[in-house]
Amino acid sequence: MRTVDLIQKKRDGHELSTDEIKWLINGYVDGTVPDYQMSAFAMAVYFKGMSTREISDLTMAMVATGEQIDLSAIAGIKVDKHSTGGVGDKVTLILVPLVASFGVPVAKMSGRGLGHTGGTLDKLESIKGFQIEVSQEDFISQVQQAGLAVIGQSNNLVKADKLLYALRDVTATVDTIPLIASSVMSKKIAAGADAILLDVTVGEGAFMKNVEDARLLAQTMVDLGKAVGRKTVAVLTDMSQPVGTSIGNRLEILEALDILQGKGREDVTEFICELAQIMLGLAQVEKSLDEVRQHLQDGSALKKFEEMVLAQGGDLEDLYRPVQVEHQLPVYAEKSGYITALPAMEFGLFAMKLGAGRAVKTDELDYETGLVFHKKVGAAVVQGEQIATIYSNENISENMLTNFQKNVRIEDRVVKSKEIIEIVS
Ligand code: URA
Question: What is the pTM of this model?
Fold first, then answer.
């Protein structure tokens, strides 16, 4: 086989065979297929797509390039959760302990943030002492004992995705359904859970900008999961504005703690309870929304979160410490009306510039900085009212402040936001 022939075949819109896909992926991982040919192939996929069979073959070829985690030593149905990326997305921090508080084991591997999106690992690492690098043995034993663990993805898992994702990131080939579906599902399949909840984000701050594309991505991933015997459900969720009220690592931990104590915003609390109900259902534990919410109210979910923090070396005193920054800058509404848009991408990039995120993988983070919105889409505001606070360790220029204000769209009409748009199963 020759790589150039496979690129040409895809470029001309033809289907690749199972063997051809395996050959290409294995060649890429062992270095015989160079980056420049793989980028050309990714771009051909971007324009010509892949059939369901090709996506499935690509996913399984990718799974085979690394180790597969065996969670069978953990009793019960193990559930996992994955989000396709978001701004202010602290859902995992609440959902994992909430589900675990019902006795359903959650063994989760998470990722880091890049660009306008945040990553759960960075948020957890803002807690003093918290370890995300845990051996497989310790990971399994923590889930056996505490019922939950959130750790960094093992370096040996899906080697093809590590290489390919980095390549896609710099060749404008990330936002294409076959490559996103195979990237996400290869990692989920290799991570070993019996059931998977996929949070497919839609909107300005997500890879999928419209519901039709998000639905197609969701269905593709659900079908991939089911084909290998994993119960899989996807939920399309709104990413046109940031999730909850905060963006920034430590700030999001603090918001998560509020939600875990039943003191969070109603909309985000409701949304997370709905996701928890679906995850519990995947583990055959049927609970009403009231029963789920009760575990936030009575402290059971918070207790689980604290257990996880302790098990992974985190300092409980530091967990509850407020952020420490040099500047807390209030932002006021420019006019009266209703907030109709808080573009997630813009605010994610704003937080990134404050040090809360990375422009490139090697950037150091400032865990303390970020943004808190006191008003979200749908809220009435009067001119001069405080709508947000910027937490920064550097002076904020007039220009940046004006930019922030301009991005808060205020109009004379009310826009309703909806966290869960659709469930795909
Ligand atoms: N998240 C992933 O893990 N992979 C993608 O390709 C996109 C989002």
Answer: 0.93
CATH of 79-318, one of 3.40.1030.10, 3.30.470.30, 3.40.605.10, 3.30.565.10: 3.40.1030.10
The answer to whether 295 is a known catalytic residue is: no
* Separation of alpha carbons 182 and 279, rounded Å: 22
Report how far residue 337's alpha carbon sits from residue 360's, in angstroms, rounded to the nearest whole number: 38
Residues 314-348: pLDDT tens digits? 999 999 999 999 999 999 999 999 999 999 999 99
Task: Tell me the H-state helices in 31-103.
Answer: 35-48, 52-63, 91-100
Closest residue to atom 7 of ligand 1, CA basis: 180
- Number of the ligand 1 atom closest to the C-alpha atom of 184: 3
Domains 3-63 and 79-318 share a fold: no
Ligand 1 atom 3: residue of nearest CA: 184
Q: Where are the domains of the chain?
A: 3-63, 79-318, 327-411
130 vs 310: CA distance, rounded Å: 8
Query: How many helices (H) and strands (E) are present in the chain, helices listed first?
Result: 17, 13
| Catalytic residue status for 161 | yes
Question: Which class is 3-63 in CATH?
Answer: mainly alpha
Residue 71 · residue 107 · CB < 8 Å: yes
Pocket flag, ligand 1, residue 225 (CB < 6 Å): no
**Separation of 183 CA from ligand 1 center, angstroms?**
6
Tell me the per-residue pLDDT of 87-134, one tens digit each, with 9 for 90 and over: 999 999 999 999 999 999 999 999 888 888 889 999 999 999 999 999
Which of 180, 188, 202 for mutating ligand 1's site (highest number of atoms within 8 Å of CB)? 180
Q: What is the CATH number of domain 327-411?
A: 3.90.1170.30
**186 Cβ below 6 A of ligand 1:** no
Our answer on whether the CB atom of 86 is closer than 6 Å to any ligand 1 atom is no
Q: How far is the CA of 293 from the centre of ligand 1 (A)?
A: 30
